[in-house]
Amino acid sequence: MKILSVLLAGAALAVSAMSAHADLRFGIMNESYPPFFAKDAAGKWQGWEIDFMDAVCAEMKEKCSIVELSWDGLIPALQSKKFDVIWSSMSATDERRKVIDFTDKYYNTPSTLIGPKDQKPGAAAEDVKGKTIGIQVSTIQSDYYKKYFSKVAEEKTYQTLDEAFQDLAAGRIDYVFGDSLPLDAFLKSDTGKDCCAKMGDVADDREVLGAGVSGGVRKEDQALKARLNAAIAAVRASGKYDEITRKYFSFDIYGAK
Prior knowledge:
The structure is a single chain. By secondary structure, this protein is α/β, with parallel strands linked by helices. It contains eleven helices and twelve strands. The protein has helices spanning 2-21, 48-60, 74-79, 94-97, 140-149, 161-169, 180-187, 190-195, 206-209, 222-238, 240-248; strands at residues 24-29, 38-39, 45-46, 64-69, 85-86, 101-107, 111-116, 132-136, 154-158, 175-179, 196-201, 213-217. The strands form four sheets. Strands 9-8-10-7-11 form a five-stranded mixed sheet, with helices on both faces. Strands 4-1-5 form a three-stranded parallel sheet. It has a two-stranded antiparallel sheet with strand order 2-3. α2 (48-60) crosses α10 (222-238) and α2 packs antiparallel against α11 (240-248). The protein is globular and about 50 Å long. The relative contact order is 0.18.
């Protein structure tokens, strides 16, 4: 009996040790989304969202790893437990909350239209009438298009924003519609600054656009959600959030409280 107890205790310690060293897996889109995430020349992920992930993991005392998937595969992969958290600039919307849960917000920026420099600025339905708008699939901007622009403009969908940018620069579409920060990064690129300009931010609609970007978790993983929320709050309170943000932006990206 004593030998059995020792064996059981040893097995418990082994399981505990394995758990302590198990990776917390973060799922991100397998395409560049600067300045939030992109691969460097060595193939390593970098960017604001990666730095923030590292800070959150350090606060949680977790060893974290990254799992890459297509954007429209992230929610199904989370549900099938291929990773533990979606960490990929995903807005927490009412529609997505039907199938997964979200952490507290960690940034919030407007949705924006960009177009050719000779295009008249404007981001309302009357401004895009008769035009073709490039939008990444399965995004909040695609949902916004359906609600506000679908009766007056055509939508052309893309797997990645880079593909939409290429078509915009080549004159094959009239606008690209997406989050303001990656669109702004394109406008500052060699290609973007020659061809295109910001047309304007669309009117906010929290029901469609959500209340900000958050980490996506399975509905049953409430303990993990609570740990992530505590770590996000601690990173912000410590000043580390602002320190990371200053590396990439000259303004606050957290948004209104």
